[in-house]
Amino acid sequence: MKNDALIECLRAGGARGRAAEDAALRERTALQGQRPWAIVICCSDSRVIPERIFDAKLGELFVIRVAGNVLDRHQLGSVEYAAAHLHCPLVLVLGHTGCGAVGAALAGESGGFIGYITDEIREAIGEERDPLRACEKNVLHAVERLKAEFAAHPEAGGAEIAGAVYDILTGELRFLE
Q1: Which helix (H) or strand (E) holds 76?
Q2: Were 36 and a residue from 30, 62, 90, 132 both cysteine, which residue would form a disulfide, CB within 3.0 to 4.6 Å?
Q3: Strand 160-166 vs strand 173-176: parallel, antiparallel, or unpaired?
Q4: DSSP 8-state assignment for residue 98
Q5: Which of 15-19, 55-59, 82-86 has the lowest mean pLDDT?
Q6: Is 31:61 a contact under the CB 8 Å cutoff?
Q7: CATH code 3.40.1050.10 for 34-176
Q8: Radius of gyration from C-alpha coordinates of the chain
Q9: Going by C-beta distance under 8 Å and a sequence separation of 6 or more, which residues neighbour residue 17?
Q10: Domain limits of the chain?
Q11: pTM of the entire structure?
């Protein structure tokens, strides 16, 4: 394997993580199930870690990560599962500054599988060229899509839906209206 050193880094990190986490909490959630209080749909960006941003413990957030925090049937199904079956009362779409997927959409990139993401983002941002405003519009587009999809399917759980943007430079979290 070409990446033996990287695999070893993951193994060592897994051991450190297991040693550092709350074993009683891990056992409780394993035996009694998860009870997250929020569903967070966010970007896959490695600088955007909802559990750290919101200082959440194991089992408190149901996190759905996809580049550009875009929605398709898989993400909608995951939201429906968490809202209806886990009884999560809140869905948060979390965008962030410096989003590579938004940047790719602004640059007109659409090749390969990335096109599925950038096409969705371009639909959300329209003619917007400002990266921050484009990020905000992308979040609000997802919020409105979730509201529309789940208004048509009340059995999905009736969770409140909100949007926010995380600033990767300052750590500031700003909720959108």
Answers
A1: helix 73-85
A2: 62
A3: antiparallel
A4: T
A5: 15-19
A6: no
A7: yes
A8: 18
A9: none
A10: 1-32, 34-176
A11: 0.92
